[in-house]
Amino acid sequence: MRIIMVALSLTLVVFATLNRVQASATADIFSPPLGYHDGLQYAPRITYDNSHNLIENTNYGVKNPDLQGLKCFGVDWSQLYHAGEDLYRTDGSSTRGAEVTAVANGTVMFADPLIDWPGRVVIVKHVLTNGQTIYSVYGHIENLAVVAAQTLARGDKIGTVLYQAYTGRYSQYHPSGDDSHLHFEIRYFYDGSNIYPAPYTTCNKPDNVPGVGYTYPGIPDNFPAPGAGYTNPSAFIRAHAGTFLPAIGRCPGNSYEYLVNGNFESGSAVGWAQYSSGGYQLIPYLPGYTHSGDYFAFLGAFNNLSENISQTTTLPADAASINYSYWWQMTTQEYPSADYDYLRVQIQTLDGLGNVITTGDLYTVTNRSTAGQWVFQSHDLSAYSGWTIRLIFSDTTDGSAPTNFYVDDVSLPICGLSGPPYSAGTPPAGTPTPFRPAKTPIALTPPANPVPKTPPPPNIAHPAYP
Ligand SMILES: [Zn+2]
Description:
Largest sheet: 10 strands, antiparallel
Strand content: 25-35%
Radius of gyration: 27 Å
Bound molecules: zinc ion
CATH superfamily of the largest domain: Glucose Permease (Domain IIA)
């Protein structure tokens, strides 16, 4: 993630010829700076690796761990707070060339054709209906389509997104192969050239009116003064969208993880309810068997079991996307003649009292599914927006020839207005917490006298336990 504005060495020219400024219309309605005409979706990026470590976050007001190596006043960029949002196409394609448009009626205050942030920067002044003045800032653009003092209407073209190479640590998470993006700010002040206090003034450049896009040591809301600094751009636009409800840009710019302990690394007492008819611990510590980390969910492995783990959460009604994903693995001693042992991935809807309204299967794994390897599965749960849901992994095994079902790295990231309604780490009400004996998958050996359910086909070797 390279959102850095390089230190300016150019001699800049002030283009604002204020005597040419015409009165612009009041900024009554705001729309997102990308997607106005192309209908595509753009949003900040927030990425976790398979162990659910945050590796990249381009939202407003956060530190981005993927900002490596470049420093301002001796502090690593990864420790600075992002003063805007870096917006990317959400479909993984390159954002290069995307049309940048004015978010509201206003007047161009800054449109230096020589500044190298990299790319050009445009600052537009907007006067709100209450008389307040705010500024929108568009960074890393080319094909500059405006000049200082020009009056703009909402949706007018400002430029296009500049190509930038990706130089961070995780190219595997950048399928487009580049790092082209729009750095976008909403702020209550115009001149960002001198906002850093001592001893951090090295970042202050007298001709760098846009600023450097980051604040330190405080959060951008308070720079250069509390209540007069930057503000969350997506939140501001949503709050001023009026009756304009674009299909694009519905994501308010934040993605929240709605599951607690989805990777199970907090152990068995956090987040998940569990039930095992055999009394087994279903979230054991078993390094070497997991998809990542040291804990996972371990269902099955013995005969005549009925087990489940579940977690309940309430989805936001305004979610722009709800993606449910997990990894599973199956190993078995079963005969391949039929499905005997099952892992069901289920979803329930609950009423306000917690009573189950509906139960449905999202996915089913059996002893005849792909064996011996981790498989990624995902589901679009957008249709459940606004519902209280329970997500369940449930296994049943029959009377012979056991099957192991593993689940790990369960995730429910939601693009919405607000975060999850629970306190992280709080188990659902009613979670039983008895002592549970751990299962031991390595102790599973083929039974001495397996009882065939139906005669296995001839010459088919009984699958070996790994
Ligand atoms: Zn940025």
